Amino acid sequence: MLPLLTAQQIREADAYTISNEPVSSIDLMERASKAFVGWFVNHYPDRKESIAVYCGSGNNGGDGLAISRMLFEHGYTQLDVKIASYSNRSTADFDTNLARLIQLAIPITALLPGEDLLQENAAIIIDALLGTGLNKALSGDYEKLAKFINGLSAGKVAVDIPTGFFADGEMPVDAPVIKADVVISFQQPKINFLLPDSAKYVDCWQTVNIGLSETFTNSLDSPYQFLEEKDARALIKPRHHFSNKGTYGHAFIIAGEAETMGAALLSSSACLYAGAGLTTACIPQAGLFALNSSHPEIMAVLRQDDEQLNIEWDKYTAVGIGPGLGKKAIALQLLSDVLERFCNPIVADADALNLLAENPILLKKLPAESILTPHMKEFDRLFGEHNNWWQRMQTARVKAAELGINIVLKNDYTLIITPHGKVYFNSTSNPAMATGGMGDVLTGIITSLIAQKYQPEEACLLGVYIHGKAGDELALPDRAYVVTPTQIANRLPATMAKLLA
Ligand SMILES: NC(=O)C1=CN([C@@H]2O[C@H](COP(=O)(O)OP(=O)(O)OC[C@H]3O[C@@H](n4cnc5c(N)ncnc54)[C@H](O)[C@@H]3O)[C@@H](O)[C@H]2O)[C@@H](O)CC1
Ligand SMILES: Nc1ncnc2c1ncn2[C@@H]1O[C@H](COP(=O)(O)OP(=O)(O)O)[C@@H](O)[C@H]1O
Ligand SMILES: [K+]
Protein backbone atom coordinates (compact mmCIF):
# COMPACT_ATOMS: atom_id res chain seq x y z
CA MET A 1 0.00 0.00 0.00
CA LEU A 2 1.17 3.49 -0.68
CA PRO A 3 0.31 5.65 2.33
CA LEU A 4 -1.47 8.83 1.28
CA LEU A 5 -0.47 11.69 3.55
CA THR A 6 -2.21 14.95 4.28
CA ALA A 7 -0.38 18.22 3.54
CA GLN A 8 0.51 18.46 7.23
CA GLN A 9 1.95 14.93 7.25
CA ILE A 10 3.86 15.62 4.02
CA ARG A 11 5.57 18.54 5.77
CA GLU A 12 6.44 16.22 8.67
CA ALA A 13 7.78 13.59 6.24
CA ASP A 14 9.91 16.26 4.49
CA ALA A 15 11.29 17.41 7.83
CA TYR A 16 11.95 13.86 9.06
CA THR A 17 13.71 12.90 5.82
CA ILE A 18 15.91 16.00 6.00
CA SER A 19 16.94 15.39 9.60
CA ASN A 20 17.29 11.59 9.46
CA GLU A 21 18.55 10.75 5.99
CA PRO A 22 21.68 11.99 4.35
CA VAL A 23 19.88 14.72 2.39
CA SER A 24 19.65 18.44 3.11
CA SER A 25 16.54 20.50 2.51
CA ILE A 26 18.04 22.17 -0.57
CA ASP A 27 19.10 18.77 -1.95
CA LEU A 28 15.61 17.39 -1.43
CA MET A 29 14.30 20.31 -3.46
CA GLU A 30 16.96 19.55 -6.07
CA ARG A 31 15.84 15.92 -6.15
CA ALA A 32 12.17 16.87 -6.53
CA SER A 33 12.94 19.36 -9.29
CA LYS A 34 15.12 16.84 -11.10
CA ALA A 35 12.30 14.28 -10.96
CA PHE A 36 9.92 16.85 -12.45
CA VAL A 37 12.39 17.76 -15.20
CA GLY A 38 12.98 14.07 -16.00
CA TRP A 39 9.28 13.74 -16.72
CA PHE A 40 9.06 17.05 -18.57
CA VAL A 41 11.94 16.38 -20.95
CA ASN A 42 10.33 13.10 -22.00
CA HIS A 43 6.94 14.62 -22.61
CA TYR A 44 7.92 18.00 -24.05
CA PRO A 45 11.10 17.22 -25.97
CA ASP A 46 10.98 20.33 -28.21
CA ARG A 47 13.75 22.56 -26.81
CA LYS A 48 12.44 25.56 -28.80
CA GLU A 49 9.00 25.55 -27.18
CA SER A 50 8.29 28.76 -25.27
CA ILE A 51 7.86 28.02 -21.57
CA ALA A 52 6.83 30.40 -18.79
CA VAL A 53 7.57 29.23 -15.25
CA TYR A 54 5.35 30.99 -12.72
CA CYS A 55 6.93 30.79 -9.25
CA GLY A 56 5.73 31.75 -5.78
CA SER A 57 8.19 32.61 -3.03
CA GLY A 58 7.79 29.45 -0.92
CA ASN A 59 9.25 26.03 -1.59
CA ASN A 60 6.92 25.34 -4.52
CA GLY A 61 8.36 28.50 -6.05
CA GLY A 62 11.82 27.24 -5.10
CA ASP A 63 11.10 24.09 -7.11
CA GLY A 64 10.05 26.31 -10.03
CA LEU A 65 13.37 28.18 -9.94
CA ALA A 66 15.39 24.95 -9.77
CA ILE A 67 13.28 23.48 -12.60
CA SER A 68 13.97 26.59 -14.74
CA ARG A 69 17.72 26.21 -14.18
CA MET A 70 17.64 22.50 -15.04
CA LEU A 71 15.55 23.06 -18.17
CA PHE A 72 18.07 25.69 -19.27
CA GLU A 73 20.86 23.16 -18.72
CA HIS A 74 18.89 20.66 -20.82
CA GLY A 75 18.97 23.13 -23.73
CA TYR A 76 15.52 24.74 -23.48
CA THR A 77 16.14 28.21 -24.87
CA GLN A 78 12.75 29.95 -24.70
CA LEU A 79 12.39 30.14 -20.92
CA ASP A 80 10.81 32.98 -19.05
CA VAL A 81 10.51 33.05 -15.25
CA LYS A 82 7.79 35.08 -13.50
CA ILE A 83 7.99 35.47 -9.73
CA ALA A 84 4.81 36.37 -7.87
CA SER A 85 6.25 38.79 -5.34
CA TYR A 86 3.01 39.32 -3.49
CA SER A 87 4.50 38.81 -0.06
CA ASN A 88 7.88 39.89 1.25
CA ARG A 89 8.51 36.48 2.80
CA SER A 90 10.46 33.77 1.05
CA THR A 91 11.94 30.46 2.15
CA ALA A 92 15.70 29.86 2.44
CA ASP A 93 15.63 27.26 -0.34
CA PHE A 94 13.78 29.69 -2.59
CA ASP A 95 16.50 32.30 -1.93
CA THR A 96 19.28 29.80 -2.66
CA ASN A 97 17.66 28.78 -5.93
CA LEU A 98 17.09 32.38 -6.94
CA ALA A 99 20.78 33.09 -6.36
CA ARG A 100 21.65 30.08 -8.54
CA LEU A 101 19.22 31.09 -11.28
CA ILE A 102 20.32 34.69 -11.70
CA GLN A 103 23.74 33.44 -12.81
CA LEU A 104 22.08 32.17 -16.01
CA ALA A 105 20.79 34.09 -19.01
CA ILE A 106 17.10 33.55 -18.29
CA PRO A 107 14.73 36.51 -18.15
CA ILE A 108 13.16 36.91 -14.69
CA THR A 109 10.23 39.23 -14.04
CA ALA A 110 8.71 40.09 -10.67
CA LEU A 111 4.91 40.34 -10.53
CA LEU A 112 4.14 43.03 -7.96
CA PRO A 113 1.06 43.46 -5.75
CA GLY A 114 -1.80 45.28 -7.46
CA GLU A 115 0.08 45.48 -10.75
CA ASP A 116 -1.61 44.66 -14.06
CA LEU A 117 -0.45 41.34 -15.47
CA LEU A 118 1.72 41.33 -18.57
CA GLN A 119 0.62 39.61 -21.75
CA GLU A 120 1.61 35.94 -21.81
CA ASN A 121 2.43 34.19 -25.09
CA ALA A 122 4.21 31.06 -23.86
CA ALA A 123 3.01 27.74 -25.27
CA ILE A 124 3.51 25.99 -21.94
CA ILE A 125 2.98 27.30 -18.43
CA ILE A 126 4.66 25.59 -15.51
CA ASP A 127 2.69 26.33 -12.36
CA ALA A 128 5.08 26.55 -9.39
CA LEU A 129 3.23 29.27 -7.52
CA LEU A 130 1.86 27.51 -4.45
CA GLY A 131 2.07 23.90 -3.37
CA THR A 132 1.03 22.00 -0.30
CA GLY A 133 1.68 25.10 1.83
CA LEU A 134 -1.68 26.55 0.71
CA ASN A 135 -3.61 27.43 3.85
CA LYS A 136 -6.75 29.10 2.46
CA ALA A 137 -8.52 29.66 -0.86
CA LEU A 138 -6.75 32.07 -3.19
CA SER A 139 -7.82 35.69 -3.03
CA GLY A 140 -6.51 39.11 -4.11
CA ASP A 141 -3.49 39.13 -6.42
CA TYR A 142 -3.19 35.31 -6.42
CA GLU A 143 -6.83 34.90 -7.42
CA LYS A 144 -6.37 37.45 -10.20
CA LEU A 145 -3.26 35.64 -11.42
CA ALA A 146 -5.00 32.23 -11.31
CA LYS A 147 -7.89 33.58 -13.39
CA PHE A 148 -5.45 35.17 -15.82
CA ILE A 149 -3.54 31.91 -16.29
CA ASN A 150 -6.77 29.93 -16.66
CA GLY A 151 -7.77 32.31 -19.48
CA LEU A 152 -4.65 31.38 -21.49
CA SER A 153 -4.77 28.64 -24.10
CA ALA A 154 -1.27 27.42 -23.17
CA GLY A 155 -0.74 23.87 -21.90
CA LYS A 156 -0.42 23.86 -18.11
CA VAL A 157 1.79 21.59 -16.06
CA ALA A 158 1.57 21.94 -12.29
CA VAL A 159 4.46 21.26 -9.94
CA ASP A 160 3.30 18.96 -7.12
CA ILE A 161 -0.25 20.33 -6.97
CA PRO A 162 -2.22 22.95 -8.94
CA THR A 163 -2.02 26.36 -7.26
CA GLY A 164 -5.11 26.93 -5.13
CA PHE A 165 -6.04 23.23 -4.94
CA PHE A 166 -6.40 21.74 -1.45
CA ALA A 167 -4.34 18.56 -0.99
CA ASP A 168 -6.91 17.24 1.49
CA GLY A 169 -9.98 18.42 3.37
CA GLU A 170 -13.11 20.14 2.09
CA MET A 171 -12.55 22.63 -0.68
CA PRO A 172 -14.83 25.65 -0.92
CA VAL A 173 -17.12 25.40 -3.95
CA ASP A 174 -15.66 27.34 -6.87
CA ALA A 175 -12.36 28.03 -5.11
CA PRO A 176 -10.00 29.70 -7.60
CA VAL A 177 -7.53 27.07 -8.79
CA ILE A 178 -5.10 27.04 -11.71
CA LYS A 179 -6.48 24.23 -13.85
CA ALA A 180 -3.78 21.79 -14.84
CA ASP A 181 -3.55 19.56 -17.89
CA VAL A 182 -1.02 17.48 -15.99
CA VAL A 183 0.14 17.53 -12.40
CA ILE A 184 3.51 16.03 -11.53
CA SER A 185 2.97 15.19 -7.91
CA PHE A 186 5.83 14.43 -5.54
CA GLN A 187 5.90 10.99 -3.94
CA GLN A 188 2.12 10.34 -3.88
CA PRO A 189 -1.10 11.61 -5.40
CA LYS A 190 -2.65 14.16 -3.07
CA ILE A 191 -5.75 12.68 -1.43
CA ASN A 192 -8.15 15.10 -3.10
CA PHE A 193 -6.90 14.10 -6.59
CA LEU A 194 -8.65 10.79 -5.98
CA LEU A 195 -12.06 12.28 -5.28
CA PRO A 196 -14.41 13.25 -8.14
CA ASP A 197 -14.52 16.90 -7.02
CA SER A 198 -11.01 17.25 -8.46
CA ALA A 199 -12.22 16.56 -12.02
CA LYS A 200 -12.74 20.23 -12.86
CA TYR A 201 -9.20 21.18 -11.80
CA VAL A 202 -6.98 18.20 -12.63
CA ASP A 203 -7.07 16.51 -16.02
CA CYS A 204 -4.39 13.99 -15.25
CA TRP A 205 -1.75 13.41 -12.59
CA GLN A 206 1.43 11.41 -12.36
CA THR A 207 3.71 10.85 -9.43
CA VAL A 208 7.48 10.99 -9.28
CA ASN A 209 9.39 9.50 -6.38
CA ILE A 210 11.51 11.92 -4.38
CA GLY A 211 12.69 9.41 -1.78
CA LEU A 212 10.84 10.56 1.34
CA SER A 213 11.59 8.23 4.25
CA GLU A 214 9.35 5.16 3.93
CA THR A 215 10.05 4.24 7.54
CA PHE A 216 8.51 7.52 8.55
CA THR A 217 5.60 7.58 6.09
CA ASN A 218 4.65 4.03 7.10
CA SER A 219 4.97 4.88 10.80
CA LEU A 220 2.31 7.59 10.46
CA ASP A 221 -0.21 4.78 9.91
CA SER A 222 -2.26 7.03 7.65
CA PRO A 223 -5.93 6.12 7.40
CA TYR A 224 -5.67 6.78 3.64
CA GLN A 225 -3.92 4.18 1.49
CA PHE A 226 -3.53 3.63 -2.25
CA LEU A 227 -4.21 0.04 -3.37
CA GLU A 228 -1.72 -1.16 -5.96
CA GLU A 229 -0.86 -4.30 -7.90
CA LYS A 230 1.63 -5.56 -5.34
CA ASP A 231 -1.12 -5.48 -2.72
CA ALA A 232 -3.47 -7.54 -4.89
CA ARG A 233 -0.63 -9.99 -5.54
CA ALA A 234 -0.09 -10.36 -1.81
CA LEU A 235 -3.80 -11.03 -1.24
CA ILE A 236 -4.66 -13.51 -3.99
CA LYS A 237 -4.47 -17.20 -3.07
CA PRO A 238 -3.52 -19.94 -5.54
CA ARG A 239 -5.80 -22.94 -6.11
CA HIS A 240 -4.30 -26.15 -4.82
CA HIS A 241 -3.92 -29.72 -6.04
CA PHE A 242 -6.49 -32.02 -4.52
CA SER A 243 -8.90 -29.17 -3.95
CA ASN A 244 -12.48 -29.59 -5.09
CA LYS A 245 -15.56 -27.46 -5.49
CA GLY A 246 -16.21 -27.72 -1.77
CA THR A 247 -12.90 -26.05 -1.07
CA TYR A 248 -14.04 -22.84 -2.76
CA GLY A 249 -17.37 -22.34 -1.09
CA HIS A 250 -20.98 -22.05 -2.13
CA ALA A 251 -22.12 -18.55 -3.04
CA PHE A 252 -25.77 -17.54 -3.07
CA ILE A 253 -26.73 -14.55 -5.21
CA ILE A 254 -30.18 -13.10 -4.60
CA ALA A 255 -30.94 -10.91 -7.57
CA GLY A 256 -33.11 -10.09 -10.57
CA GLU A 257 -36.75 -9.56 -11.36
CA ALA A 258 -38.38 -10.62 -14.62
CA GLU A 259 -37.37 -7.30 -16.22
CA THR A 260 -33.93 -7.14 -14.64
CA MET A 261 -32.77 -10.74 -14.92
CA GLY A 262 -29.65 -9.41 -16.61
CA ALA A 263 -28.43 -8.10 -13.27
CA ALA A 264 -28.79 -11.59 -11.76
CA LEU A 265 -26.97 -13.16 -14.71
CA LEU A 266 -24.14 -10.63 -14.49
CA SER A 267 -23.57 -10.95 -10.77
CA SER A 268 -23.90 -14.73 -10.67
CA SER A 269 -21.66 -15.23 -13.71
CA ALA A 270 -19.02 -12.91 -12.18
CA CYS A 271 -19.26 -15.00 -9.01
CA LEU A 272 -18.64 -18.14 -11.06
CA TYR A 273 -15.70 -16.66 -13.00
CA ALA A 274 -14.10 -15.26 -9.84
CA GLY A 275 -13.78 -18.83 -8.62
CA ALA A 276 -16.61 -19.78 -6.25
CA GLY A 277 -16.85 -23.58 -5.99
CA LEU A 278 -20.61 -23.49 -6.38
CA THR A 279 -22.92 -20.66 -7.30
CA THR A 280 -26.65 -20.64 -6.78
CA ALA A 281 -28.81 -17.77 -7.96
CA CYS A 282 -32.08 -16.93 -6.29
CA ILE A 283 -34.12 -15.62 -9.23
CA PRO A 284 -37.74 -15.23 -10.34
CA GLN A 285 -39.32 -18.23 -12.06
CA ALA A 286 -39.34 -16.27 -15.31
CA GLY A 287 -35.55 -16.14 -15.38
CA LEU A 288 -34.82 -19.87 -15.27
CA PHE A 289 -34.56 -20.38 -19.01
CA ALA A 290 -32.18 -17.43 -19.38
CA LEU A 291 -30.00 -18.69 -16.53
CA ASN A 292 -29.83 -22.27 -17.79
CA SER A 293 -29.12 -21.28 -21.35
CA SER A 294 -26.42 -18.72 -20.50
CA HIS A 295 -24.75 -20.40 -17.52
CA PRO A 296 -25.61 -24.06 -17.02
CA GLU A 297 -23.05 -24.18 -14.18
CA ILE A 298 -25.17 -21.95 -11.99
CA MET A 299 -27.93 -23.51 -9.90
CA ALA A 300 -31.22 -21.82 -9.19
CA VAL A 301 -33.57 -21.25 -6.30
CA LEU A 302 -36.77 -20.00 -7.91
CA ARG A 303 -39.13 -17.54 -6.31
CA GLN A 304 -42.55 -16.14 -7.01
CA ASP A 305 -43.80 -12.79 -5.79
CA ASP A 306 -46.65 -14.19 -3.72
CA GLU A 307 -44.88 -17.18 -2.20
CA GLN A 308 -43.24 -17.66 1.17
CA LEU A 309 -39.70 -18.89 0.63
CA ASN A 310 -37.95 -21.48 2.66
CA ILE A 311 -34.25 -21.04 2.06
CA GLU A 312 -31.69 -23.39 3.55
CA TRP A 313 -29.27 -20.65 4.59
CA ASP A 314 -26.83 -23.11 6.17
CA LYS A 315 -25.92 -24.46 2.73
CA TYR A 316 -24.21 -21.24 1.72
CA THR A 317 -20.83 -19.80 2.66
CA ALA A 318 -21.53 -16.34 1.23
CA VAL A 319 -24.57 -14.31 0.25
CA GLY A 320 -24.77 -11.38 -2.15
CA ILE A 321 -28.11 -9.61 -2.39
CA GLY A 322 -29.57 -6.78 -4.40
CA PRO A 323 -28.69 -6.48 -8.12
CA GLY A 324 -31.93 -5.93 -10.05
CA LEU A 325 -33.88 -7.31 -7.09
CA GLY A 326 -36.59 -4.65 -7.06
CA LYS A 327 -38.29 -3.41 -3.93
CA LYS A 328 -41.46 -5.52 -3.81
CA ALA A 329 -42.54 -7.30 -0.62
CA ILE A 330 -40.64 -10.45 -1.61
CA ALA A 331 -37.40 -8.47 -1.86
CA LEU A 332 -37.81 -7.00 1.61
CA GLN A 333 -38.78 -10.43 2.91
CA LEU A 334 -35.58 -11.93 1.47
CA LEU A 335 -33.44 -9.17 2.90
CA SER A 336 -35.03 -9.46 6.35
CA ASP A 337 -34.69 -13.23 6.20
CA VAL A 338 -31.00 -13.15 5.34
CA LEU A 339 -30.32 -10.63 8.10
CA GLU A 340 -32.22 -12.77 10.57
CA ARG A 341 -30.89 -16.18 9.63
CA PHE A 342 -27.51 -15.89 7.92
CA CYS A 343 -24.73 -15.43 10.43
CA ASN A 344 -21.78 -14.59 8.16
CA PRO A 345 -21.04 -11.21 6.54
CA ILE A 346 -23.23 -10.48 3.51
CA VAL A 347 -22.71 -8.32 0.43
CA ALA A 348 -25.53 -5.84 -0.16
CA ASP A 349 -25.84 -3.85 -3.38
CA ALA A 350 -28.35 -1.91 -5.48
CA ASP A 351 -31.97 -2.58 -4.38
CA ALA A 352 -30.79 -4.18 -1.14
CA LEU A 353 -29.21 -0.80 -0.37
CA ASN A 354 -32.37 1.04 -1.35
CA LEU A 355 -34.37 -1.23 0.94
CA LEU A 356 -31.90 -0.60 3.76
CA ALA A 357 -32.29 3.13 3.16
CA GLU A 358 -36.08 2.83 3.45
CA ASN A 359 -35.85 0.54 6.49
CA PRO A 360 -32.86 1.91 8.42
CA ILE A 361 -33.63 -0.32 11.39
CA LEU A 362 -32.28 -3.20 9.27
CA LEU A 363 -28.87 -1.54 9.01
CA LYS A 364 -28.21 -2.43 12.61
CA LYS A 365 -28.91 -6.09 11.84
CA LEU A 366 -26.13 -6.40 9.27
CA PRO A 367 -23.77 -9.18 10.38
CA ALA A 368 -20.40 -7.77 11.50
CA GLU A 369 -17.97 -7.11 8.64
CA SER A 370 -20.76 -7.13 6.04
CA ILE A 371 -20.14 -5.18 2.86
CA LEU A 372 -22.26 -2.45 1.32
CA THR A 373 -21.35 -1.49 -2.26
CA PRO A 374 -23.13 1.81 -2.95
CA HIS A 375 -22.47 4.28 -5.72
CA MET A 376 -22.78 7.94 -4.74
CA LYS A 377 -26.58 8.14 -5.02
CA GLU A 378 -27.17 4.93 -3.10
CA PHE A 379 -24.75 6.13 -0.45
CA ASP A 380 -26.60 9.42 -0.02
CA ARG A 381 -29.93 7.61 0.12
CA LEU A 382 -28.53 5.54 2.96
CA PHE A 383 -26.69 8.17 4.94
CA GLY A 384 -27.99 11.59 3.82
CA GLU A 385 -27.09 14.15 1.16
CA HIS A 386 -23.51 15.39 0.94
CA ASN A 387 -22.18 18.51 -0.73
CA ASN A 388 -18.79 17.11 -1.54
CA TRP A 389 -16.81 13.90 -1.56
CA TRP A 390 -14.56 14.75 1.36
CA GLN A 391 -17.71 14.98 3.53
CA ARG A 392 -19.09 11.77 2.02
CA MET A 393 -15.83 9.93 2.74
CA GLN A 394 -15.84 11.10 6.37
CA THR A 395 -19.46 9.99 6.81
CA ALA A 396 -18.51 6.62 5.35
CA ARG A 397 -15.73 6.29 7.93
CA VAL A 398 -18.11 7.11 10.75
CA LYS A 399 -20.84 4.76 9.51
CA ALA A 400 -18.46 1.89 8.78
CA ALA A 401 -17.13 2.11 12.34
CA GLU A 402 -20.57 2.60 13.91
CA LEU A 403 -22.15 -0.34 12.07
CA GLY A 404 -19.02 -2.51 12.07
CA ILE A 405 -19.16 -2.93 8.29
CA ASN A 406 -17.12 -2.36 5.13
CA ILE A 407 -18.34 0.22 2.64
CA VAL A 408 -17.25 0.04 -0.99
CA LEU A 409 -18.03 3.51 -2.33
CA LYS A 410 -17.89 3.09 -6.09
CA ASN A 411 -16.25 5.58 -8.36
CA ASP A 412 -13.27 6.18 -10.57
CA TYR A 413 -10.96 5.46 -7.64
CA THR A 414 -13.37 3.25 -5.71
CA LEU A 415 -13.00 3.73 -1.96
CA ILE A 416 -12.99 0.79 0.41
CA ILE A 417 -13.78 1.99 3.91
CA THR A 418 -13.28 -0.51 6.71
CA PRO A 419 -14.86 -0.72 10.17
CA HIS A 420 -11.40 0.08 11.57
CA GLY A 421 -11.26 3.52 9.95
CA LYS A 422 -9.04 2.78 6.95
CA VAL A 423 -9.81 4.21 3.51
CA TYR A 424 -8.25 2.39 0.57
CA PHE A 425 -8.36 4.04 -2.85
CA ASN A 426 -8.30 1.58 -5.74
CA SER A 427 -5.83 2.26 -8.52
CA THR A 428 -7.51 0.27 -11.32
CA SER A 429 -10.59 0.85 -13.58
CA ASN A 430 -11.24 3.39 -16.32
CA PRO A 431 -14.07 5.38 -17.91
CA ALA A 432 -14.76 2.66 -20.53
CA MET A 433 -16.32 0.85 -17.56
CA ALA A 434 -19.03 3.47 -17.04
CA THR A 435 -21.79 1.09 -18.20
CA GLY A 436 -24.91 -0.21 -16.47
CA GLY A 437 -24.32 -3.59 -14.86
CA MET A 438 -20.69 -2.96 -13.88
CA GLY A 439 -21.65 -2.82 -10.21
CA ASP A 440 -23.55 -6.11 -10.50
CA VAL A 441 -20.35 -7.79 -11.62
CA LEU A 442 -18.47 -6.31 -8.67
CA THR A 443 -21.08 -7.71 -6.25
CA GLY A 444 -20.63 -11.16 -7.77
CA ILE A 445 -16.86 -10.96 -7.48
CA ILE A 446 -16.81 -9.91 -3.82
CA THR A 447 -19.41 -12.54 -2.89
CA SER A 448 -17.34 -15.15 -4.69
CA LEU A 449 -14.19 -14.20 -2.78
CA ILE A 450 -15.99 -14.39 0.54
CA ALA A 451 -17.28 -17.84 -0.43
CA GLN A 452 -13.62 -18.75 -1.03
CA LYS A 453 -12.80 -17.78 2.56
CA TYR A 454 -11.16 -14.44 1.97
CA GLN A 455 -11.76 -12.16 4.95
CA PRO A 456 -14.39 -9.51 4.09
CA GLU A 457 -11.85 -6.68 3.98
CA GLU A 458 -9.54 -8.76 1.76
CA ALA A 459 -12.47 -9.66 -0.48
CA CYS A 460 -13.27 -5.96 -0.92
CA LEU A 461 -9.68 -5.01 -1.70
CA LEU A 462 -8.97 -7.87 -4.07
CA GLY A 463 -12.45 -7.78 -5.61
CA VAL A 464 -12.39 -4.08 -6.40
CA TYR A 465 -8.83 -4.35 -7.72
CA ILE A 466 -9.46 -7.27 -10.11
CA HIS A 467 -12.76 -5.79 -11.31
CA GLY A 468 -10.95 -2.61 -12.36
CA LYS A 469 -7.89 -4.49 -13.59
CA ALA A 470 -9.97 -6.69 -15.90
CA GLY A 471 -11.51 -3.47 -17.24
CA ASP A 472 -8.06 -1.95 -17.75
CA GLU A 473 -6.74 -5.02 -19.54
CA LEU A 474 -9.71 -4.97 -21.87
CA ALA A 475 -9.90 -1.24 -22.52
CA LEU A 476 -6.46 0.31 -22.25
CA PRO A 477 -4.38 -1.50 -24.92
CA ASP A 478 -6.72 -0.44 -27.79
CA ARG A 479 -8.21 2.54 -26.00
CA ALA A 480 -11.60 0.82 -26.25
CA TYR A 481 -14.47 3.27 -25.95
CA VAL A 482 -16.46 0.94 -23.79
CA VAL A 483 -16.13 -2.45 -22.14
CA THR A 484 -19.19 -4.40 -21.09
CA PRO A 485 -19.84 -6.06 -17.74
CA THR A 486 -20.08 -9.44 -19.51
CA GLN A 487 -16.59 -8.94 -20.91
CA ILE A 488 -15.28 -8.10 -17.44
CA ALA A 489 -16.81 -11.24 -15.94
CA ASN A 490 -15.33 -13.42 -18.70
CA ARG A 491 -11.94 -11.82 -18.29
CA LEU A 492 -11.61 -12.49 -14.55
CA PRO A 493 -9.87 -15.90 -14.74
CA ALA A 494 -7.07 -14.44 -16.88
CA THR A 495 -6.73 -11.32 -14.74
CA MET A 496 -6.50 -13.43 -11.59
CA ALA A 497 -3.99 -15.80 -13.18
CA LYS A 498 -1.73 -12.86 -14.08
CA LEU A 499 -1.69 -11.73 -10.47
CA LEU A 500 -0.50 -15.18 -9.45
CA ALA A 501 2.19 -15.35 -12.14
N1 LIG B 1 11.88 20.33 1.76
C1 LIG B 1 10.64 20.43 1.49
O1 LIG B 1 9.83 20.78 2.33
C2 LIG B 1 10.21 20.15 0.09
C3 LIG B 1 9.14 20.86 -0.45
N2 LIG B 1 8.84 20.77 -1.73
C4 LIG B 1 7.91 21.75 -2.34
O2 LIG B 1 7.45 22.66 -1.40
C5 LIG B 1 6.06 22.83 -1.49
C6 LIG B 1 5.55 23.30 -0.19
O3 LIG B 1 6.26 24.46 0.10
P1 LIG B 1 5.88 25.51 1.24
O4 LIG B 1 5.54 24.77 2.46
O5 LIG B 1 6.96 26.52 1.26
O6 LIG B 1 4.56 26.14 0.72
P2 LIG B 1 4.09 26.78 -0.65
O7 LIG B 1 5.22 27.03 -1.57
O8 LIG B 1 2.97 25.97 -1.13
O9 LIG B 1 3.48 28.17 -0.11
C7 LIG B 1 4.29 29.18 0.42
C8 LIG B 1 3.54 30.15 1.28
O10 LIG B 1 2.39 30.66 0.64
C9 LIG B 1 1.55 31.25 1.60
N3 LIG B 1 0.16 30.95 1.28
C10 LIG B 1 -0.56 29.88 1.63
N4 LIG B 1 -1.80 29.97 1.17
C11 LIG B 1 -1.87 31.13 0.49
C12 LIG B 1 -2.92 31.78 -0.21
N5 LIG B 1 -4.14 31.25 -0.33
N6 LIG B 1 -2.66 32.96 -0.78
C13 LIG B 1 -1.44 33.49 -0.69
N7 LIG B 1 -0.41 32.94 -0.03
C14 LIG B 1 -0.63 31.77 0.54
C15 LIG B 1 1.94 30.67 2.93
O11 LIG B 1 2.44 31.69 3.74
C16 LIG B 1 2.99 29.61 2.57
O12 LIG B 1 3.97 29.50 3.53
C17 LIG B 1 5.57 21.51 -2.01
O13 LIG B 1 4.33 21.60 -2.65
C18 LIG B 1 6.69 21.13 -2.97
O14 LIG B 1 6.48 21.74 -4.22
C19 LIG B 1 9.69 20.00 -2.61
O15 LIG B 1 10.72 20.84 -3.01
C20 LIG B 1 10.24 18.78 -1.93
C21 LIG B 1 10.97 19.17 -0.70
N1 LIG C 1 -15.55 6.69 -15.12
C1 LIG C 1 -15.16 5.57 -14.52
N2 LIG C 1 -13.87 5.41 -14.25
C2 LIG C 1 -13.46 4.31 -13.62
N3 LIG C 1 -14.25 3.32 -13.21
C3 LIG C 1 -15.55 3.39 -13.47
C4 LIG C 1 -16.07 4.53 -14.13
N4 LIG C 1 -17.39 4.35 -14.22
C5 LIG C 1 -17.68 3.17 -13.64
N5 LIG C 1 -16.57 2.59 -13.18
C6 LIG C 1 -16.51 1.31 -12.44
O1 LIG C 1 -17.72 0.61 -12.63
C7 LIG C 1 -18.43 0.38 -11.43
C8 LIG C 1 -19.80 1.06 -11.56
O2 LIG C 1 -20.65 0.57 -10.60
P1 LIG C 1 -22.17 1.05 -10.54
O3 LIG C 1 -22.25 2.53 -10.73
O4 LIG C 1 -22.77 0.46 -9.35
O5 LIG C 1 -22.72 0.36 -11.82
P2 LIG C 1 -24.17 -0.23 -12.08
O6 LIG C 1 -25.11 0.41 -11.13
O7 LIG C 1 -24.41 0.20 -13.47
O8 LIG C 1 -24.05 -1.68 -11.94
C9 LIG C 1 -17.58 0.95 -10.30
O9 LIG C 1 -17.13 -0.09 -9.54
C10 LIG C 1 -16.38 1.62 -10.97
O10 LIG C 1 -15.19 1.09 -10.50
K1 LIG D 1 1.86 24.48 -7.99
From TrEMBL:
Keywords: ATP-binding, Isomerase, Lyase, Metal-binding, Multifunctional enzyme, NAD, NADP, Nucleotide-binding, Potassium. Gene3D superfamilies: 3.40.1190.20, YjeF N-terminal domain. (6S)-NADPHX binds at residues 59-63, 131-137, 142, 160, 263, 324, 375, 440. K(+) binds at N60, D127, T163. The keyword Secreted does not apply. AMP binds at K410, N411, D412, Y413, T414, G439. Its cofactor is Mg(2+); K(+). One of its GO terms (molecular function) is ADP-dependent NAD(P)H-hydrate dehydratase activity. Its EC number is 4.2.1.136, 5.1.99.6. CDD domains: YXKO-related. Residues 228-499 form the YjeF C-terminal domain. SUPFAM superfamilies: Ribokinase-like (SSF53613), YjeF N-terminal domain-like (SSF64153). Residues 10-218 form the YjeF N-terminal domain. PANTHER family: ATP-DEPENDENT (S)-NAD(P)H-HYDRATE DEHYDRATASE, ATP-DEPENDENT (S)-NAD(P)H-HYDRATE DEHYDRATASE FAMILY MEMBER. Homotetramer. Catalyzes the epimerization of the S- and R-forms of NAD(P)HX, a damaged form of NAD(P)H that is a result of enzymatic or heat-dependent hydration. This is a prerequisite for the S-specific NAD(P)H-hydrate dehydratase to allow the repair of both epimers of NAD(P)HX. In the C-terminal section; belongs to the NnrD/CARKD family. This is Bifunctional NAD(P)H-hydrate repair enzyme. It comes from Mucilaginibacter auburnensis.
